[in-house]
Amino acid sequence: MKLSIKNLGPGLLFAGAAIGVSHLVQSTRAGADFGLGLLWALLLVNLFKYPFFQFGPRYAAATGESLLDGYKKMGNGILIAYFILTFATMFTIQTAVTIVTAGLASSLFGDLGFNPELAVKVWTIIVLATCLVLLILGKYKLLDNLIKVIIITLSISTIAAVAMALLGNDSSVSLTQILPKETPEVMFLIAFMGWMPAPLDISVWHSLWAVEKRKDDKEFKSKSALFDFNVGYIGTVFLGICFVLLGCLIMFGTGESFSDNAGEFSGQLINMYTSSLGNWAYVLIGIAAFTTMFSTTLTCLDASPRAMDRTIELLFNKDYKRGYLVWILLLAVGTVFIFFFFASEMGLLVKIATILSFITAPFYALINYKLISSKHTPKETRPSLFMHILSWLGIVFLIGFSIYYLTTL
Question: Residue 221: is its pLDDT beyond 90?
Fold first, then answer.
C-alpha cells in the first residue's frame, strides 16, 4: 500500500493539538530563560512519552475501537478514573489554549473598540463561537482537511523564522545543559514537560480520531496509522526545538521576560518573530501563530466532548444521540466562565493545566501500556521488546519526576 498525505489525518490532528501552548508559550519561555539548557528535558520527555502516545492509534487500528473501549474491558474503575481526571482538567486546559488564541486575535485584528482587557474577552466569545459552528456543522471531515493546511503554514513560517534568526545571530550559543534547582525553576521544568509535546490523555483523543478516520478510509489500518502518527509526532518534536531556538536567539540574555497578561504576551510573541524576520513579516507570522493556536483550540474543543460522550456511553451501556452536543456546549460555557474571571492570569492558568497534565501522566502511561500488552489487543500488533523496554523506562521516568516535583514544593 502506498503511503501519502491522503493517509494522514489523526496524526496531524495530534500535532495540531500539541503544537500550541507547549510550543508557542512553554518552549519559547524555556529558550528565553535557559537558552538551550533545557533541550535535554524536551528530548527526554518526548522519547519517554512516545510509546504511550503511539499505543492510541496502534490499538485503534488493530481493533477498530478507541482506548476508552479498551479501558472498559479492563474494568469500569479505570473508565471512572478517566472521567474524573478529564472533568477536573478539561475546562482549565481549554481556557489555557483559548486565552492565548484570543490574545493573538486581539493583537492581530484589533481591540474592536474596547479596552485591551475587555477586547480579549470579546475575542474569546468570537473564537469559541466560530469553533462551535465549525465542529457542529463540519464534524471530523472538516478537521481532517483543515489541519493539513494549518500544519503546513505553521511549519514553513517557523522554519523560516529560525533560519533568519540564525543568520542574524553573531554571538555563540551555549549547549550547556541545566538542571533547575530552585523551586520556581523546578515548577517551570515540570510545566514545560507536562505539555511537551502534549498531555498523555491526548492518546485517547488520537484513538477516537483514528476510529473516525477509519470510517472514512477503510485502508486506514495499522501501517497507515503508525505512519500517520510518526509524521505528526516527529513534527511536534522538531518544531518544539525550533521554538526553543527562537526563544534563545531572540530573548535569552536580554533581561526581557514574557508577560502573564494574554494581550501583552501575544504582542511579545509576534514581535519575537518579526524581530528576526523584519516588520514586513508581522501579518504573516501573526496569522501563522494565530492559526496554530486556533487549531489547538479547535481540536481540544472537539476532543474532550467526544471523549466524555464516549465515556458516558460505555459506563451506562447506552448511546446518546446528542451527547457530544451537550458536552461541547458545556465545555464552551465553562471556558467562558473561567476566562472572564482569570483573563489576566494566563501564566497561572497555563501552569495549573500543564502541572496537572504532568502529575497525571503516570496514570495514562500505565493503563495504556497494560491495555496494549493485554489479551484485548491482537497478539500480532502488541509492542516489540524494544517498545516494552522503552515503556518501562518511560513509566519510571514519569513517576520519578512526579515525585521529584512533589518533594520540591
Answer: no
Residue 156: which domain range?
5-408
Return the closest-CA partner of residue 140 out of 16, 234, 319, 316: 16
**How much is the average pLDDT of 212-221?**
72
Q: What is the number of other CB atoms lying within 10 angstroms of the CB of residue 167?
A: 8
Give mean pLDDT, residues 190-196.
Answer: 80
Crossing angle for the helix pair 282-316 and 116-167, to the nearest 10 degrees: 110
Per-range mean pLDDT, top range of 25-29, 159-163, 365-369 = 365-369
Q: How many domains does the chain have?
A: 1
pLDDT of residue 403: 83
CATH number of the domain enclosing 244: 1.20.1740.10
The half-sphere exposure of 392 on its side-chain side, counting CA atoms within 13 A, is 6
* CA separation for the pair 95, 88 (Å, rounded): 13
